[in-house]
Amino acid sequence: MSIPFADRLLRWFDQHGRKDLPWQHPREPYRVWLSEIMLQQTQVATVIPYFHRFLERFPTVRSLAEAPVDDVLQRWAGLGYYARARNLHRCAQTVMQQHGGQWPRDIDAMVALPGIGRSTAAAILSQAFGDRHAILDGNVKRVLARHAGIAGYPGLPAVQQKLWRVSESHLPQARLADYTQAIMDLGAAICTSRKPLCGSCPVSEDCVARRENRIAELPGPKPRKVRPQRASWLLLIENERGDLLLERRPPSGIWGSLWCPPVVELADDWRSALQERYGLQVGQPETLAAVHHAFTHYDLELRPLRVRLAKGARIADASVAWTTMRDPDALPGLPAPVRKLVEAAYFSTPDLLSL
């Protein structure tokens, strides 16, 4: 009789798995939850410094729940996918308000929390409490699709259902926290999307993809769509002191609730937009180099215009703020591409510091 999948994987993990990640010591619910949200669509190496900085500012779920959302977004700036940060804040508040600051052990109650899906809930419960739940993140989908020979794009409901069944069938009776980390590590280090290290894989002997020479075709690719291309004006509006106008983005959509210079669709008249929003009239702008940013579903070109307000012009609107351009550390939580652009425009050369 062959050795069970989980036993082989755990033996491999004991020798090669990651056991020194910061959220593993201690492996308690708040830290595990925070890491799982940060790791959604973000690599471990990128997450680790953010994780440490986040814990310094928000060491407990209570401290996170009680913090202003601006503080949360500022600490998150640069990680992208800002809905995660907003959901993180809402989730902490929900845990405090509905669960008395204790994380629920029931998976349905965990899934009901903001920003937590089935796989994330299972990862938290298995790693923080050792509960017996299967996960199905991107790495695990790839491992199981290849090992079980499941064709099709894993995002399709029918394919995903098959993968869930396989994932549940491999669960061991013990060491659930280690097993969950092990199968994620296997996908990250061995069963990679390109050039997998099949010779080092502990479960390769009964891997369908390897046996049938289908490694390159499994899992099935996402059906291709033409990526939409969008372009917008980014208006760097300065007052007589050289301070920069920022406005809070709407709660939904890109960069939700972050502070940002006004953005106007390229097809719209930006002068009319400024007049309509704030009653502002400005002179001839200075055109700066365009920047490009790729989102999940489309590409965005930002075309910055630097404009000065007439002396004495004022804006009375609680949704806008002026920020100094004398100290880059004083900038609030800006979207990462906007921060890079602003820092390049205002802090890259000494003469610009005198604005």
> What is the H-and-E element order?
HHHHHHHHHHHHEEEEHEEEEH
Instruction: Tell me the fraction of residues in β-strands, as a range.
Output: 5-15%
Low-pLDDT parts are 349-355
Number of domains: 2
CATH architecture field of the largest domain: Orthogonal Bundle
Structural class of the helices, strands and pairings?
Answer: alpha+beta
- General form: elongated
Q: What is the first-to-last residue Cα distance?
A: 75 Å
Can you count the helices?
14
| Fraction of helical residues | 40-55%
- CATH fold-level assignment of the largest domain: Endonuclease III, domain 1
Overall radius of gyration: 24 Å
Major sheet details? 5 strands, mixed
Please report the first level of CATH classification, the CATH class of the largest domain. Mainly Alpha
Walk me through the topology.
Layout: H1 5-16, H2 29-38, H3 44-57, H4 61-66, H5 69-76, H6 83-99, H7 107-111, H8 118-129, H9 138-148, H10 157-169, H11 176-190, H12 208-211, E1 229-238, E2 244-248, E3 259-260, E4 263-265, H13 270-278, E5 286-287, E6 291-294, E7 299-308, E8 320-323, H14 336-347
Parallel strand pairs: 1-7
Antiparallel strand pairs: 1-4, 2-3, 2-8, 5-7, 6-7
